[in-house]
Design brief:
The complex is a heterodimer of chains A (296) and B (278). With 296 residues, chain A is mainly α. Helices cover 72% and strands 3% of the residues of chain A. Chain A has a two-stranded antiparallel ribbon with strand order 1-2. The longest helix of chain A is centred in the first third of the chain and has 32 residues. In chain A, 41% of the residues are buried. Chain B is an all-alpha fold and 278 residues long. Chain B folds into two domains: 46 residues, no CATH class; 207 residues, MetI-like fold (Orthogonal Bundle), CATH 1.10.3720. Chain B is 71% helix and 0% strand. Chain B is built from 15 helices and no strands. Classes of the chains: A mainly alpha (296), B mainly alpha (278). At the A-B interface, helix 1, helix 2, helix 4, helix 5 and helix 6 of A face helix 1, helix 4, helix 5, helix 6 and helix 8 of B.
């Protein structure tokens, strides 16, 4: 009784806290938490407008035999393995190179690299459809100078995915550059001075001082970058529709297609759960692997 | 000056050249979009392409704006983005204030739920959200476009970070002066949190203006389409009309580019504050 009364008292004392979180949390619960749980339930159902049936793990079983779904996982992994390391390398290189400059020049470059991020993926896709256009596009025109014959970049199973990765790496990395530069500017100057007094070369300073101290930021970027790359959709939808021959069909494109072209909500939810599981496992592995020795 | 040391001019001009080349290649597609948009429609698909249109024209923009639906898509996008931004700022500031300055049982667990939700791919909620919205009769309505977007972890996290930096004494002083809880929030916290609200507002507006997947799913009549969805439909309908398409893309991109240059420091700040570490 006393315990209950004490709890009641604490709840009463915290009433304004609940009051202030209520509007946001109610919406968050209805439109996020409930759907996440419902998605798990849906993945176990055969959901049709004429009636719903519990089918256990059958949706997952049929996914196991679905070769295109397997291919979509491979494609998504391919895309992520292409995009994340390249874009991180670009961001690291750019941040390291702008670091010695004065603030206004740093800001200029940060703004330049961030600019593509304020436009939507729809616009970026439209522009690159034009740039990749085989007879008239800018890319083939520029490549002609180095003696490369026009290529149908998006029409070929070998080049479609690399072309999408290339586009993402060229346009991306802006926010990572902002974050990495902020982290680099936060590294105390005396560490650099000490390294220089010890006779370290600039490359040594970068690999032995800068890089280890950037580890928390890099961890954050790897985790969020992986999650984002696993969710690639708009570029695929607009530029290739998953083709040619499913060579650019990603998991989210498949979920969209299953749910909103074929209206198979159960299998689509099972796919979403697989996506959820993969990104969760990857995040945990990355935290374990990169998270050790991080000091705050 | 020891501090100046790391800021000496880099001797490696290669580094500067690389930086310029990388920055140019990131911006060049946007440049190319604008150049194609002001190019004569017949010249857009000639070889070799012109870097500077010899005979620039507004004809592509005129043709784009004259298309049915464009005005409606624009108003839809603007209305949805403004509504989401207004409500999102307000509810996030309230929740951020509670998490930053109030103690109540369960606050840590609830906050952790928000943070963990950032790790969940949004596509997981897509199908159930669609079913909820259709069963409520919100398919193809503004409510359907707005409601799911008005609360989320990013805003709550950002506002908590921001309000945590405000001195607690101010709140105590307000209460001693006889302000109620709601008044304290409205008269003391909100005005002081303005820079944080601006950062959140800009990012929310940008996210909504550019939003594609959800509007694509929840709307189906031509009247309810937003600008990105309308553009995507146009791309499917007239894939070879590059002048027209690039004019449409420029039309949708320019507002965000202008906002970016006007509020650049809020953008740069939002990226660093909004990132949670470790």
């Amino acid at each position: 009784m006393t315990a209950l009364r004490a709890l009641g008292k604490r709840l009463y004392k915290g009433r304004w806290g609940y009051f202030f979180i209520l509007p946001n949390f109610a919406i968050f619960a209805i439109f996020f938490l409930v759907p996440v749980v419902w998605s798990m339930v849906l993945s176990l159902l055969d959901y049709q407008w004429w009636g719903t049936e519990f089918v256990g793990l059958r949706n997952y079983q049929s996914l196991l035999g679905d070769r295109i779904f397997w291919k979509s996982i491979v494609n998504t992994a391919y895309y992520t393995l292409g995009v994340v390391p390249l874009w991180l390398a670009k961001a690291l290189l750019v941040s390291a190179l702008i670091f010695p400059f004065r603030k206004p020049i740093q800001t200029f470059f940060k703004a330049a690299f961030y600019l593509p991020h304020v436009t939507s993926a729809v616009i970026i896709s439209m522009i690159w459809l034009w740039i990749f256009n085989p007879p008239f596009g800018l890319l083939n025109y520029l490549l002609r100078y180095v003696g490369i014959e026009p290529i149908a970049w998006l029409g070929n199973t070998r080049t479609a995915m690399p072309a999408l990765i290339f586009m993402q790496v060229v346009m991306g990395g802006g926010s990572s550059i902002v974050l990495l530069s902020a982290a680099m500017n936060g590294i105390p100057a005396y560490l650099y001075e000490a390294a220089e007094l010890d006779g370290a070369k600039p490359t040594q300073v970068f690999f032995r001082v800068t890089l280890p101290l950037l580890r928390p930021t890099l961890l954050y970027l790897v985790v969020t970058g992986t999650i984002n790359s696993f969710q690639v959709f708009t570029n695929i939808y607009l530029m290739t529709s998953g083709g040619p021959q499913f060579s650019t069909t990603t998991i989210v494109y498949m979920i969209y297609d299953k749910a909103f072209s074929q209206f198979q909500f159960g299998p689509a939810s099972a796919m979403a759960m697989v996506l959820f599981a993969i990104t969760a496992v990857l995040a945990i592995v990355q935290f374990r692997w990169l998270g050790q020795e991080v000091e705050y | 000056m020891l501090l100046e040391d790391k800021r000496t001019r880099p001797r490696h001009y290669i580094a500067v050249l690389f930086l310029l080349a990388a920055a140019l290649s990131a911006i060049n597609p946007l440049y190319w979009m604008i150049m194609t948009a002001v190019q004569q429609p017949t010249l857009a698909v000639t070889f070799p392409p012109e870097w500077f249109p010899s005979n620039p024209t507004w004809i592509n923009f005129q043709r784009f704006l004259a298309r049915p639906g464009v005005m409606r898509w624009t108003t839809n996008s603007l209305f949805v983005a403004l509504a989401v931004t207004g409500i999102q700022i307000f509810t996030s500031a309230m929740a951020g204030y509670a998490f930053a300055k109030k103690t109540f049982p369960g606050s840590n667990v609830i906050f952790y739920l928000y943070i963990a939700s950032m790790m969940v791919p949004v596509q997981v909620t897509l199908v159930p959200l669609f079913l909820i919205m259709t069963s409520l009769g919100f398919q193809d309505t503004y409510a359907g476009l707005i409601l799911p977007a008005i609360a989320g972890p990013f805003g709550v996290f950002l506002m908590k970070q921001f309000i945590s930096t405000l001195p607690t004494e101010l709140i105590e002083a307000a209460i001693i002066d006889g302000c109620g809880e709601v008044q304290t929030f409205g008269r003391v916290i909100l005005p002081l949190a303005k820079p944080g609200l601006a950062v959140l507002g800009i990012f929310t507006f940008m996210g909504q203006w550019n939003q594609f997947l959800w509007p694509l799913i929840i709307t189906n009549s031509a009247n309810m389409r937003t600008l990105p969805v309308g553009l995507a439909l146009l791309q499917e309908e007239l894939p070879m009309q590059y002048g027209l398409l690039m004019a449409g893309a420029t039309y949708a991109a320019i507002p965000m580019i202008v906002i970016f240059f006007m509020f650049q420091r809020y953008f740069l700040r939002g990226i660093t504050v909004g990132a949670l570490k470790g």
